[in-house]
Design a protein that fits this description.
The chain has 20 helices and 19 strands. With 599 residues, the chain is of the alpha+beta class. The chain has four domains: 107 residues, PAS domain (Beta-Lactamase); 96 residues, Beta-Lactamase (2-Layer Sandwich); 98 residues, Beta-Lactamase; 155 residues, 2-Layer Sandwich (Alpha-Beta Plaits). It has a five-stranded antiparallel beta sheet, sandwiched between helices. Strands 7-6-10-9-8 form a five-stranded antiparallel beta sheet, with helices on both faces. A five-stranded antiparallel beta sheet has the order 12-11-15-14-13, with helices on both faces. Strand 17 and strand 18 form a beta hairpin. It is elongated. 21% of the residues are buried.
Length: 599
């Protein structure tokens, strides 16, 4: 008889005591079980060596990820928002320095694990702590809900609070909280409302030129603002002459007269006027034909704006070749979120030809949802003058993009546009997803591995207790795997494990956690309202297994199962349920060995 496996020794001692003696037939049975334990260890070591090779590949991938992780960490720490991550029980998991600064929480307290004390520090700062706590409880009761609301502090500060679920593989594992200090913005908004009447009065008295002339060009009236614009000493001096010498090109006036005769009114007529000092001013004329006897209207000087536009156009030319050579998308929008420029990369991505996009708004080519977040981010740049970054998954082109929005300023500091650089980070995101999947998935069967099972099972157990629902743990062992390996080879043994995984997938729901935790051992964790559901599941499993064996007669695939049920009021841990399921599974396996039957 081979040396007995330590785990088998403990099981025999546990159930039969130290003085148990074996009959010859019993020795054969014990030897078979012992061989299965030994083979399980061999399979486990082979898997560990395979995982070691996978770890080397992961290390190589991690090298490529470090720069991105560093960038993401720097972004989180450099953001103007305070960020807090908490698990489903409300315990602090992570935070940035801005969060501690905004909420005035000592780092030692945040890192101490005393969440109750940290919560007390925040509550005592708020005007409505009860409402704050009530909303937190509501959000934890509805895990999928996203939220945005306002928090008012006793010292006058105002925060915007954002919250959304944190998910892994589609399952909520906590909440992410983001806090933005909008105190200054609220004060500004209040000040703007209070000064609205004064502001309107100021706009109405803005220094625009106002005039009235006859059809033959004689001035009837001109205000001082127009006289100053054209460098005359007074309105009287301006009106002493004719309007005709003021036009740089008299044909422009002829065109204006013709348009007025046709329509009666012309707005924003673009023309160049000559000042008394022989300087040229770019102006927009608004004119109305009055009873076909005269012309009245306003003159708006746009000379400085035109110069700024020309300067911006010249600057664009200097950097055009650099911008067009990059693989990143680059584009420019003004304060109305209209396109001023796109590099060739973005033109191709949008499917444009030539400059057809110029002057057209962002919202014309994007969904309302995408337009909303873009205006929010670009508006933040216009209001703060600081660059912002935003990670976006494109619904039009697929892939993930990191957008950096930066202000374009005039020499006097005025922000006239926003530059957007969109970098395709789809490959990096795919690598992240691959790494996350490899760490939680069994390579052979595609089910969760041991790590994946324990990562997700605690969350499911907590969810079941919140919902007052029972939990089933089904412990499954593939019978006769050693015989399959010995007779048909280890490749066939792997196929048998894959088929066993398929049978389990067909038996249980997508919401249940199915994992391979050992060589020939599987476990399933499922929410079930009553213990009676366990028998139904076992019957369904046996039915699917029987169907499989009819279609695959080469050898019989047999599974031993042990089902442990935890009622809503019980306090068993996942480990305790696994021990119960393991014991029940081995009891069934012993019955099979004794009776010589299989299920």
């Amino acid at each position: 008889m081979k040396p007995m496996h330590n785990l088998l020794k403990r099981q025999i001692k546990k159930y039969f005591g130290d003085s148990f003696s074996f009959t010859s037939k019993c020795e054969e049975f014990i030897d078979a079980v012992n061989s299965a334990y030994i083979q399980s260890d061999i399979d486990r070591r082979m898997l560990e060596r395979s995982l070691d090779l996978s770890s080397q590949e992961l290390l190589q991938a991690n090298s490529e990820m470090r720069n991105l992780i560093s960038l993401l960490n720097a972004t989180i720490e450099s953001t103007a928002d305070g960020i807090l991550v908490a698990d489903l029980d409300g315990h602090i998991v992570s935070f940035n320095n801005k969060f501690l600064e905004m909420w005035r929480i000592p780092r030692s307290l945040a890192e101490s694990g005393d969440d109750a004390k940290a919560l007390a520090v925040t509550m005592e700062q708020l005007k409505d702590p009860d409402g704050f706590l009530k909303r937190v409880k509501e959000l934890y009761a509805e895990l999928e809900v996203e939220s945005c609301d306002i928090l008012e502090f006793r010292d006058g500060r105002v925060f915007e609070r954002y919250s959304q679920p944190q998910k892994i593989e589609g399952r909520s594992i906590g909440r992410v909280w983001s806090f933005r200090d909008v105190t200054a913005r609220r004060r500004t908004e209040k000040a703007l409302v209070e000064s609205e009447k004064k502001y309107r009065k100021l706009v109405s008295n803005a220094p625009v030129g106002v005039y009235k002339t006859s059809l033959n060009g004689e001035f009837i009236f001109a205000n001082d603002a127009l006289a100053n614009m054209l460098e005359f000493r007074s309105a009287e001096e301006l009106m002493a002459g004719s309007v005709l010498p003021i036009y740089k090109n008299l044909k422009d006036r002829d065109i204006l007269i013709e348009e007025l005769k046709k329509r009666g009114r012309v707005e924003s007529f673009d023309v160049e006027l000559v000042t008394r000092g022989r300087n040229v001013r770019n102006v927009l004329l608004n004119a109305t034909l009055e009873r076909k006897t005269g012309i009245s209207g306003m003159v708006i000087d746009v000379t400085e704006r035109r110069r700024a536009e020309n300067a911006l156009r010249e600057s664009e030319e200097k950097y055009r070749s650099l911008v067009h050579s990059t693989e990143d998308s680059i584009y420019l929008v003004d304060r109305e979120y209209r396109y001023l420029f796109m590099n060739e990369r973005h033109v191709a991505r949008m499917g444009f030809s030539g400059d057809e996009y110029l002057g057209r708004s962002f919202g014309e080519f994007h969904s309302p949802e995408n337009t909303k977040w873009f205006i929010e981010k670009a508006g933040e740049v216009f209001s703060t003058g600081k660059s912002v970054q935003h990670e976006h998954t494109s619904t039009n082109h697929g892939g993930c993009f990191l957008l950096t929005l930066s202000p374009v300023k005039k020499p006097d500091g005025m922000i006239v546009a926003v530059t957007v650089i969109s970098k395709d980070i789809s490959r990096i995101k795919a690598m992240e997803a691959k790494l996350r999947t490899l760490s939680l998935t069994d390579e052979l069967t595609g089910l969760y591995n041991r790590r994946g099972f324990f990562t997700l099972s605690e969350q499911l157990l907590k969810q079941a207790r919140r919902q007052k629902t029972g939990i089933l743990v089904v412990y499954v062992d593939v019978d006769h795997l050693k015989e399959i390996n010995d007779k048909w080879g280890h490749r066939e043994g792997d196929i048998a494990l894959i088929h066993a995984a398929d049978v389990l997938r067909g038996t249980f729901r997508e919401s249940d956690i199915i994992a391979r935790i050992g060589g020939d051992e599987f476990v399933v964790l499922a929410m079930e309202t009553a213990k009676a559901g366990a028998e139904k599941l076992e019957n369904r499993l046996q039915s699917i297994l029987d169907t499989y064996n009819v279609k695959n007669p080469r050898y019989e695939l047999s599974l031993s199962t042990g089902v442990a049920y935890c009622a809503p009021e019980c306090l068993y841990s996942v480990d305790e349920l696994l021990i119960q399921g393991d014991q029940l599974m081995y009891e069934q396996k012993k019955v099979k060995q004794v009776s010589g039957s299989s299920t």
